[in-house]
Every structure is written in C-alpha cells, then in structure tokens.
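hey
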C-alpha cells in the first residue's frame, strides 16, 4: 500500500485490478464463483475452452461446464474505470474499431455499431419489442438505452410435464430487447405471450443446451452462439416444456 503521507497511485492497486492471464487491467471483470478469482471476461472464457480449472489456483471449477460458474463484477469494473483515466474510452474505441472491421456493413450497420458498446448487431424490421400486453409491459422502457439484440424464439414440441405439448409457436418469433435481459425474463415473456399457467415451467435452450435463468442474452451470444461458430443473425433460442426425468 501507499506510504503514509503520500497520495496513493494507481500502481498501488495494480495487484487488485489486473488480470492474471493477460497482465492488463481487468476488462469486463468476471469472477469464478468457486474460488472468487477474477479475470477479464474474454481471457477466462478463452481459458475455459481448453480447461475446467481456475488458471490461478488450479481448483476444478466445474466438471463439464465451467462457464456456468462465472459472474460479471460490474462494481469492480466501475472502480477500475474511475481509477484508470481514459481506460473506459480506450476500450470503447477498441470495441468499436473491431466491430466496424468485422461486422457486415449492410442496412446501415456501420452506423448502428457506433451506438452499441458491446458490438451486438443492430436489428431492424418486424420485431416484437419484448413488451407485454397492456399493463404487463409497464417497465418495458427501463432498458431502452441498453445495447439491443435480436433473437428468434423457436418452439420445440417435446412432451413436457403432463405428457402434453401445450406450448405453441409465438405469433412473432423475432423479438428485440436489451442484451442484458436474462433467460428468466425470457421465460416470463413466453409465459405471458403463450398464456401459460404460473405453475408451468419452460426450458430455454441454445444449440441444444439448457440455459441458466440468470444468463443474459449478451453472455449467451458471446459464449454459446458466436464462439461456437454461429455466424447467422438473429441468435436462435429454443423453448420447450420442462421435461421431468424423475
């Protein structure tokens, strides 16, 4: 720590705000819940492509899917941005440059990339805005300023809880919403649109894998859709009645 009487310098805190993997400042700091070690999001996601162990302490994070044990630390991210002058602007510019170079420039997407910090493509056309009907969509404007993502919700007609196939296709399968929306919110949206009873449980899947209810659409896009070689857009999520194996 800083010596008595001396104003603390950024380097005094480097041990707490740098990534063990890339040695740079933590960008989108992401914590492994099993051991509480924190890394850049991109660094730890890439590491878990080849290993299920924490790169710092060696503990096995998860037997099959360590990505389930990651949590973004937004508070730490804000602290780092306040400690390191210009870091936020530098990262935003680098993301913008990357996506301008790698995203197709059709239908004004170059302009859309300018307003989207995380690089998710903009969406246009006949999309449901994700709001409810009447009073049920009362807080639909609270994420309007967030980066937006388009998804396609496809129905899987599997036999569900009561041996029925009561879930059906949405009238509008394509929706546009905040990239920070969670799977839990998508389930509520589906239940509302399909008029399902409150006790009815749904699974939401991406590439055949059931998604956790706390996963955000941004997280799924980055770790399940894009990293698995999917280049199509919008991202496709599937839903079905929860299957009881008991």
């Amino acid at each position: 720590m800083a010596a008595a009487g001396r104003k603390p310098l950024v380097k005094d805190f480097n041990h707490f705000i740098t990534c063990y993997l890339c040695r740079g400042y933590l960008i989108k700091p992401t914590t492994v819940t099993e051991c509480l070690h924190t890394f850049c999001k991109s660094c730890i996601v890439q590491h878990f492509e080849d290993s299920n162990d924490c790169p710092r302490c060696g503990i096995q994070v998860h037997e099959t899917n360590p990505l389930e044990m990651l949590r973004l630390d937004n508070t730490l991210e804000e602290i780092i941005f306040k400690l390191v002058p210009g870091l936020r602007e530098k990262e935003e510019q680098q993301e913008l440059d990357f996506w301008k170079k790698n995203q197709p420039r059709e239908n004004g997407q170059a302009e859309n990339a300018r307003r989207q910090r995380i690089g998710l493509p903009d969406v246009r056309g006949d999309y449901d805005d994700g709001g409810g009907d009447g009073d049920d969509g009362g807080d639909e404007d609270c994420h309007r300023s967030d980066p937006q993502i388009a998804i396609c919700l496809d129905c899987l007609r599997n036999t569900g809880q009561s041996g029925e196939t009561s879930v059906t296709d949405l009238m509008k399968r394509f929706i546009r919403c905040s990239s920070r929306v969670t799977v839990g919110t998508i389930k509520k949206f589906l239940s509302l649109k399909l008029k399902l009873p409150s006790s009815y449980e749904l699974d939401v899947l991406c590439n055949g894998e059931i998604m956790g209810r706390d996963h955000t659409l941004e997280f799924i896009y980055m770790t399940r859709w894009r990293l698995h070689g999917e280049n199509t857009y919008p991202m496709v999520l599937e839903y079905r009645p929860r299957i009881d194996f008991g």
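The chain has seven helices and eight strands. The longest strand covers residues 148-155.
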